[in-house]
Amino acid sequence: MISDRRTLLTGILAAGATLALPQRLLAATGTPLPAPPAYTPPAITQAERERRIEEARRRMRAAGISALLIEPGSSLIYFTGIEWHRSERLTCAVIPANGDIAIVMPFFEEPSIRLSLAIPAEVRIWNEDEDPLVTVAGILKDRKAAAGPIAIEETMRYFAVDGLKKALPNAAIVSGAGVVRGCRMHKSPAEIALMRHATDITIAAYRWLVPQVAPGMKASAVSSMMDAATRAMGGSPEFSMVLVDAAAALPHGVREDQTIGENSLVLMDCGCTVEGYQSDVSRTFVVGRPSDHQRQVWDQVHRGQQVAFAAAKIGAAAASVDDAVRRFYEGLGYGPGYRLPGLSHRTGHGIGLDGHEPVNLVHGETQVLEPGMCFSDEPGLYLPGQFGVRLEDCFHMTEAGPAWFSQPPESLERPV
């Protein structure tokens, strides 16, 4: 029997009421939105960013690279603090192996871009009738880095690379992935604290939300509730995917806005950011009474998470984690490999400033696990046309082995 409070809430949400107004949600549920956590970890300091730059320089010198170029995005935030968008007007950082860092930006955008610049750096502007890559080339010449090799952060766009080749036709252009990944894969204690805080917010939002999910609700309404709870605690929602019954067998869902029914299985995949650092947590639960089959698969995935966690050992190849899970699932009759029914995606991905970043826990990945690396652990099982179960918690590698950001759920009856 659905309570009167749930009936009222279901009516409001089914009618499409926005949860941008938490007061309406409060009135419907009688359950206050969660309070912000008592502790907020400090932001990344200038000193930490400068240490990151020095580490990048160390890696460049070891690889014989003269400079590194980075466009706006998470890597630019990582090294400089600059939060800016990409457009046809180039903004970039030039990090030489020896010499001062420089930021290239459009003249009229300079005041805005400077607002998030978190380190000392030379700023060189260019006007609308000028070629910004000529400005970049000038910086490289001043730093005696123009002969190269010049490394390019892996997401930098072709037009910028092509323009640099024209401005410095004799310079060797190489990939900067090894330098940037080498820095970003190993999280500092401050980064791990921010990721833990983001995860704490996501878990608290789940604990507030799940008891209120009821038959008749739309998936979009449940997603909006999750976002409202996340914002109430100071997190910035990144995604809140809600999949119901057969749609849960599709790892990234469907376009249709599903309706939760009696005894529906619900798979949620949600995350937020704190100071740019991400959480990523999936939970699967049943709104009502689970079937024996649903319970069996949930228990198998719960065990699969533990198999992955146990396999994550310092010095082991990242592939070994994925391989251990697949051996376990194949022993249960799933697969083999990536075949369905079974685990059709990698066991986990790197996480930090990006929700998905190198390296991955996937078959064939030779990168060894080292302290400071952070991963998701999400060995879902998907049964096409029936349902899917995914439990996802992230962990970071310590000298002693893996440590959870969030503890996996205890049981299908206690899914959060």
TrEMBL record:
Signal peptide range in chain numbering: 1-27
Q: Which residues form the Creatinase N-terminal domain?
A: 52-185
The family database entries (InterPro entries) matched by this protein are listed as: Creatin/AminoP/Spt16_N, Creatinase/aminopeptidase-like, Creatinase_N, Pept_M24, Peptidase_M24B, TAT_signal
Tell me the ranges covered by the Peptidase M24 domain, including all copies: 194-399
Q: Which UniProt keywords apply?
A: Signal
Does Signal show up as a keyword for this record? yes
Protein name, please? Xaa-Pro peptidase family protein
